[in-house]
Every structure is written in C-alpha cells, then in structure tokens.
Amino acid sequence: MSNDFPSSKLERGKIFAKTGLKVGTNYAKRYLKKSVGKKESEQEGKQFHTQNAREVFNEFTKLRGTALKIAQSLSMDEGMLPEEFAEVMSESQYSVPPINKALARSIIKKELGDYPENLFADFNTEAIAAASIGQVHEARLKNGQKVAIKIQYPNVKNTIHSDMSMAKTLMKRIISGGGNFDEYFDEIEETLMEETDYIQEAEYLKYFNKRFSGDNIITPDHVEELSTDKVLTMTFIEGKHLKEFLASNPSQEKRNHFGQLLWDFFHDQVEQRNFIHADTHPGNFFFRNDGKLGVIDFGCVKKFSEEFTHNYMQLLPKHLKQNEKEIRDLYLKLDIIKENPKNPKAEEEFFQFCKAYGDTFAKPYMGDEFNFG
Q: 242: domain range?
C-alpha cells in the first residue's frame, strides 16, 4: 500500500526528474556500448527493456494521474513501446497500489460530510481497484444494496498539465520509432481532464444505464445522494475480468457469446450516432456467470459528429467493394491518412498498410462461410 500521495508540483517534479535521469542514463550507457562495437544478445536486450520498464512503472504508480494514464494508453497501442516495456506497463490496467486508508477516509469525510463507517452499513477500507486518478472501495448501503465508491486522488486535476509536460519528455525517449506524438499526448491530457469531472460521469452513467436497459449488457446505477464532484457512488457490478475469464478456460460457446456482446455494445453506440464509451481497457469489462456483460467507468465518453459516424459506417462497405480510390477518399475524410506531397511513397505505403488492416476485418463478410481458426 502506498503511504504517500505526492500532490504538489515540486514533489511530483522530483519523481519525474529522478526517473528520467535514471532511465536516460541507462539508455546512454547502452548506446555507448553499441557504439564501441559491443554486441547485445536478444536476451540482454529484453532484460534491459524489462528493467527500465519496471523503474518507470514503479515511479509512475507513486504519481498516478497523468503518468499512469500514459502507461495505460501506451501499453494498449501495439508497436509504440518495446514489447517488454509494454508488458510491464500493461499492469496499469489491473494492478495499481491504493493510497493509504486514512487518506481515503478523510476524502470521504470532506466530500460527504462524515466518515464512511457512519454513512454506510459496511465499508471496505481496502480499495478493490486503483487507477490513474482515483480508486474504488466496496461498501453496502443501509438498505443492503452493494455499491462501489470511486474517490478521486487529492489535487489530481491541478497536476495534470504540468505532469503531462514532464511525462512527454520522459516517454519520448522510450517510444519506438521516434516521431511527433504531441497530438497523442494532448488527447491523453484532454481525456484526463474529462475523467476528473465526476458530475459529468454521473450523467453518462444515467445515459448508458437507460440506453442498455433490458439488454444482456449491464451498467451501474448512480447513487446521487452519496456523490459529489470528487466522490462517485454507484451500484456494484460483479463479474470476472478478461484475464480471469480466459484463465477459467471458457467454452467456445461462451467466448462467442461475450464476443457478440462486446461487438453489440460498441457497434450500437457508433450506429446510433450518440455517446461512445471510449475507455476500452480490459479492466472496465466484467464477464458474468449469468451471461451478461458488465461495463464500468464512464469517465471517458466521446460524442462524434454525424459526418464522422456516417463515414465510419461506410468503412466495411467500401472494403467489401475493394475500390481503392473510394477507400482512399474515405480514409482522408476520416483523417486515417493524410496527404503527403513531400513523400508520396511513404503516403502510399501507409495507405496500403491501413487498407490491409481494414481488409482483415472485412474478410469474414466476403463469403458465405469464414473459418476464424
């Protein structure tokens, strides 16, 4: 358990600086060894990335907030990080140490006006989940209803911008292939700011709860009287995370069933041209014994324009027609590719890469039967 939460810019800056210096020194030493002709075995290369990833991840878990969100996002984007780095960073999807119990209690007291033991029939002082900007505690209302209480880490909103500037400098040394990723990091910063707005998240909870009412997809109910802009209380969703579900060796029938529910959940949102759950990391989905799919965490929700969703829904039909000009025009409209008059060869290579990716998704629809094996 973490005993401290560094909330000042100075404290956080020291941690970023320490991490950057250590990792930067490690990479410099590695470069020097290579420059003098010392060969590195494949195993040594993997070990190097794993050790550095562990250094970064351990410090990022102290910072939470922006740092952990970057770790979470990069670990899910294949190819951006060395494989060993991504594997360690993927722990941010499931295993983040919580803040200490006293701090959690004081946040609830400040926000809800009393300590949790007086507000709830039962309150688990051990967090059941901890993430980038907050952690979740299990409790039971006085009427017996089981709930999840999401509490926001202190001062996290005020540290996002300065954290992002420092984190960008550090992570650009590690990201594979170099390049300009400013837009990528800007999106993470914008997303984090949205996720600190628990009032807005409560509204999204209500929307999605109503939207999927009666389906095999369930979302939490908002408990308004025990919520503020820093504490969000909602009904508890039971179930297994993806790793646990797959470890139970489910039948192909169960896999197909939940795969269909995941498809239905996201496809419905795009097709209806409405709000879209945009925080898709595996920790937000629960595979339940009753066959229902549980979905949580509505802090990051996007609404795309009518034009975007219309064009997006044309992707499959265009790939089925296999008309390269129409596919290229659609990619340009969706900003999947950009015109590159200075390097048309690179533009064409990237287009063909994207088209091959799209064709893979279109293949099951190209015939009467498709073997996924």
A: 101-152+197-303
